[in-house]
User: Which sequence fits this backbone?
């Protein structure tokens, strides 16, 4: 994941439109900052989740919250 983040950072610096590359376009909003937080969340999740029961609990909470959002 860190290599991917470094590549995104280099692409952002060398972009023609640095602002759009960093924040993302209005329609997609997938810029460097979004990918940075995706990768940060992934790394923190991998570090903190050590047991299979925690993964099951995470999936259950995600499923229940998505039901609440869809109502």
Assistant:
């Amino acid at each position: 994941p860190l290599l991917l983040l470094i590549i995104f950072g280099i692409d952002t610096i060398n972009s023609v439109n640095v602002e759009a590359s960093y924040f993302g376009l209005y329609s997609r909003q997938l810029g460097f900052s979004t990918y940075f937080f995706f990768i940060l969340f992934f790394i923190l999740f991998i570090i903190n989740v050590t047991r299979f029961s925690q993964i099951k609990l995470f999936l259950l909470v995600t499923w229940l919250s998505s039901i609440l959002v869809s109502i």
Notes: The first helix runs from residue 2 to 13.
